[in-house]
Structures are given as C-alpha cells and as structure tokens.
Amino acid sequence: MCGIIGGICKKNITPLLLKGLKRLEYRGYDSAGLVVLTTDNTLQRVREAGKVDNLVSNIDAQNLDGKVGIAHTRWATHGKPSTKNAHPHICNNSVGVVHNGIIENFLALKSEQQKQNYHFTSDTDTEVIAHGIHLALQTCENLLEATQKAIKTFAGAYSIGVISPTNPGHIIAARSGSPLIIGVGKYGNFITSDQVALLDVTKQFIFLEEGDIADISANSISIFDKNGLQVEREIKTSKLKNGQISKGNYAHYMQKEIFEQPQAISDTLESRITKDKVMIEAFGNDAQQIFQQVEHIQIIACGTSYNAGLVAKYWLEDIAKIPTHIEVASEYRYRNPVILDNTLFITISQSGETADTLEALRSVKKRNAAVHSLTICNSAESSLVCESELTFLTHAGVEIGVASTKTFTTQLVALALLSVVIGKCQKQVSEQQEKVIVDGLKRLPGLIAKALEQEGQIIKLAKTFKNKFNALFLGRGAMHAIAMEGALKLKEISYIHAEAYPAGELKHGPIALIDRDTPVIAIAPKDELLDKLKSNLQEVKSRGSHMIVFEDEASNVAPMEGMDIIPITHNLGRITAPIIFTIPLQLLSYHAALIKGTDVDQPRNLAKSVTVE
Ligand code: G6P
Q: N or C terminus: which one in the chain shows less Cβ crowding within 10 Å?
C-alpha cells in the first residue's frame, strides 16, 4: 500500500531509487515519482501516472544527478491516480515529501493552510504534510525539528520521508501506523517500506517503532521515540537473498509462488514437528500455559488470510473442541463485540501490517486485558509480530504476486499445527490422532508436487473462461472456505465475478444464477459429505451449466455430459484435503487470467499490503 524508498549516499541516488521502486511496485502501482536534491541544491522532481516503467522511461537516470532523494509508488486513496496526485509532493521548492498512509484530518489542515496562503496542486491528503513542515520550518532550527513539530498536528497513519535544500545532507523519516525501515549501508543510509527494495546495497536494517522519527545523513542515524527522547534501535541483518525476489524461469511471480509451495510448506514444518509430534514451543515459550487456559478463540484477518481462518474454524472446533469465531477485521474493529476472558485472539496476516487487522488487535487489548494474542504471520519484523503475545512465523519466503498463494497454504499448515497443540493442551487429542495428523502434514510437499502435475489439464479447462463473466464455486464443510479462496483468486486476477457457496445452500437462491454461461467449479473430497455433494452436483447439472469437478480419486464422481472431472489425488485426510484442493484452484485462476490477458502479478486496483483502512 504505497512504497517508499529514499537514500543519501556518496554517488548519484537516482538509479537506486528507480530499482527500489520496481521492487516495491507490489505495494501499489497506479503512479510513481521521485525527487532528488541536485548538485546545485534544488529539488528536482519527476512523476508519472501508471506503473514504475512509465517513470523509468521518462527519466535519464544518469543526468538526474543528486546524492539525496526520495521516491514513491502509489496506491491511490485520496485523489485519483494521476500525475498531479503522484508523490513526492513539494512545497515552495523547499520541502519534498513521500507518504504512505492517510492523514485523516487533512481537510481541516488544508483549510487552515489555505488561509495562510498555501497553494494546493493535488487532491491528496499528503500535500498538507509538505505545507505543514514548510510552515514549521519558518520557526524551527532545522528539518528534523520542523518535522517533529508538524507531525504533532497530523491525525491518522503515516510513514514519511522528507528532504529539503534547507538541510541538504539529511533525510527525515517518521513512522506512525505504517511501516518504515532504515537501511544501514557502507556508503550511505536509506529508507524503505520493505527490505526487498534495498538488498542490492545493504542487508543491515533498523525497523522503526511506532512514533519514531529519524534524522539520517550519509554517515549517521539519530532516532527519537514518540516522546522525543533519543533512542538506540537494534540493527538487524536480513536473511533475504536477492535471488528470492527474482522470477527465475517463470512467466509470473504468481506462477513461481504456486510452484514454490512444496518447499514453502517443508520450510514451515521444519523444526515445528518431530517424528510424530507437533512442538508446542513453536508458538512461543508461554504457549503451553496459555493454550491450557483458552476457552474461546476469535480469529481476525482480511482477504486470503481470512479464508485461511475460515478453514481453521472447522479444525479448531473439530480437533481442539474450542468454540471458535472468525470475522473480517474491518468489521470487528468497529463494533462492540463481547470479549470473554480466556479468549485466544488470533490474527492471520501475510504482511503483518494490514491496518484493519492491526487495529482490531489493538482494540481488543484495550477492551479486555484478559485475552491472549497469537499472530500467524509471514513477516518476522512486522507490527503484528511486535504487538502479539505469541507468534508463529510461516516460512513461505517473500511473496511478490499480489494474489496470495504460498502464504495461504503455509497459513493453513500453521493453523493445522495450532489445532493439534491446543487440542493437546486441552487433552482432546490422543497421541495416535496427533501421529496421524503429523504423518499427513509430512506428506504435503509430495502431494502438492503431484497436484501441480495437473497443470496441463487445467490449462485446457481454463479456456472455458475465455468469454465468461461469472463463475460459481461449490464446496461443503471446510471445502466451502477453499471454494471461497478459489473464487477470490479468480476475481482478483481475471476480473471474472465469482461467488462461493456451501453446496447445500445452492437451492436457497444461487441456483437461480446457473445457466450455460456460468461455469460451476466443485470440490469433491472423499468425506462424510460426499454423497450430499453428489446430489448437489446433479441439481447443477440438470440446469445445463458446464461443471469442473476436482475430486479425490476415491470419490468416484459419476461422469456426466458437460462435466470435467479431475482427480487430484487419493485418500486425503481432513487436514491435508483443504490444502491440496487449493492447488488446482490457484492454477485455474492463474491460467484463466492468462487467457483473459490481465496483469497477473499486479491486478488492477489491488495492492498486496493494505496499510490503510
Ligand atoms: C490485500 C491483498 C490480499 C491479502 C489481504 C490481507 O487485500 O491483496 O492478497 O490477502 O490484503 O493481507 P495480509 O497481509 O494481512 O494477509
């Protein structure tokens, strides 16, 4: 949700800014821009609507020469995507600002600033930051003090980078509600929304904390906390490798990430299971004590992570026998839920920075001190990890495709492990049951590799979607949640309207949608609901729609005209089945999107990490 990169070093910063923007593009890609402080100490800015490549092709990187600069790739909130709304925003050729977040009181600030003759050239909330700092500079010693003074007037969420000819050797960086990281280099220092943007120049990072403001020069970094006190923040060495963020031989990041799932799942299981047991400590040192006390579970998440939580509700109630509720974060945070003592509050998030999820956690902690929190997250240094009592890190590696794939299946693995450990702590899971589940989890990488072999057949099926605008996904039990994830993937990347329904609910409304132009995709595992599902398939078939059924070989769905049946594997268990049946749905949406000719890795209007509400 908007990407920031900036730097101050001993050589021209422009090529680094442009390369960094490309790597941050997954965070937003509707316009991009940069401003550098040139050798004659003036702010020189270039902005373009559209993707970073538009900006790159309009910049002569060697001739836009400056050693200090900030850059931004935008996901529009206030003001439509256009050049005039692209960042950086500049005030009176004296303050340049890039911003990620939303300044909620920008209308009030704007009207005050207009009275003071500040002229607005964009429709963004960000412009008030540039003017506010400029105003403060009139009475402050330097850019740091001016930024400190100005941010006191901002309400909302922000991470910002600021430069000015007034203090040419400095970048000011501030974080409140949106992530910002400092890269510590040998020949300069940098700021970024995500480490991946800086891996070419450094692996040393400082993760700013809430309310921090930093004064950064080429050879010094001073950080002040929310009370204005100078503080030391640890420098951490990133384990990320540059190779992890390349597409390799794949056409898209999404395709690469789908095929990385066997490895991502092995990595997530590593050191979390023994021969036939799940290790409770994998969830943190206090996990055992907390899980013994838990009486209720509340799961909160957004998007794909929410769908993972839906599957977990089935597992946690079935295996651990704990009443479990799940809700999307943007709803939960704004209502007055009853929060019982001894509730385990679980957040699930790839990024760990999703604003709604984070705020839901914060609000729960304020309302009831007797809840415990656990986050299942793919980002070790994220806000959710920092603010949760217990953490389980999925080891999916960097996921760049905007549509989540490997982070979903690794979240499911984490939630399966969680169901077992809570079940053990509650004395609901026998050693034998645990062994069966662990055996199933160990088979996952091989089973996924086998499911991926169906790609050829799925490519043929994807042609069905060429001229289609609607699709229906059906599943029962936990497979309804997998159907929801399948529908979400199709919507996100191929722009086909897709809905998922529990197959038994079909006759209460959605069956009216079924016609020849609405393909129906059904998931048919071999489970206790199979016969019911088979009846539902008959109901659909008799309405003339084209059906695609992904089945367990043991399900033996009877072939019918106009129905494609694709066996995925055989005799899957209740934990392995939802994970394995996810794979053909991911491949189907990927190939449907290719046929539709959409931008698979950067679908329209979306961003990977949504750090605004
Ligand atoms: C955005 C992304 C989704 C993601 C959701 C939640 O909407 O486009 O792919 O599932 O945010 O993100 P999180 O990082 O919290 O899992």
A: C
Is the distance from the beta carbon of residue 351 to the nearest atom of ligand 1 less than 6 Å? yes
What is the pLDDT, as a whole number, of residue 606?
81
254 within ligand 1 shell (Cβ under 6 A):
no
Output DSSP code: residue 430.
-
Q: Same domain, yes or no, for 224 and 333?
A: no
Q: Give me ligand 1 centre to Cα 609, in Å.
A: 6
**From the CA of 472, how far away is ligand 1's center (Å)?**
22
Both 17 and 49 in one domain: the answer is: yes
Q: What share of the chain is helix, strand, coil (3-state, %, to 5)?
A: 40, 25, 35
Q: 390-393 and 372-377: which strand pairing? A: parallel
Strands 221-224 and 230-231: antiparallel
List, by residue number, the catalytic residues.
2, 608
Question: Are 313 and 356 part of one and the same domain?
Answer: yes
Residue 246: per-residue pLDDT = 81
Kindly report the pTM of this predicted structure. 0.85
pLDDT attached to residue 1: 67
Q: Which domain holds residue 302?
A: 249-447
Identify the CA nearest to 525 among candidates 485, 475, 562: 475
- Say yes or no: CB of residue 404 within 6 Å of ligand 1: yes
Domains contained in the chain, number = 3
- Indicate if ligand 1 lies below 6 Å from the C-beta of 545: no
> Distance (Å, rounded) from C-alpha 412 to C-alpha 299?
13
CA dist., res. 599 & res. 136, Å (int): 43
> Rounded distance, CA 491 to CA 15, Å?
36
- For position 335, which CATH number holds? 3.40.50.10490
Residue 611 lies in a domain: no
**Token pair belonging to 46:** 């270039």
Question: Which residue's alpha carbon is nearest to atom 15 within ligand 1?
Answer: 349
Q: Which atom of ligand 1 is nearest to the CA of 407?
A: 16
Same domain? For 169 and 295 the reply is no
Six token digits for residue 415? 């939630």
Which H or E run includes 330? helix 329-332
Residue whose structure tokens are 């995925």: 568
Task: Give pLDDT tens digits for 445-484.
Answer: 999 999 999 999 999 999 989 888 999 999 999 999 999 9
According to DSSP, residue 249 is labeled T
Do 231 and 313 share a domain, yes or no?
A: no
Distance, CA of 407 to chain centre: 9
Is 608's C-beta closer than 6 angstroms to any atom of ligand 1?
yes
Ligand 1 atom at minimum distance from 379 CA: 14
- Residues (pLDDT < 50) of the chain are none
What pLDDT sits at residue 572? 84
Q: What is the pLDDT of residue 118?
A: 97
Do 50 and 86 fall within a single domain?
yes
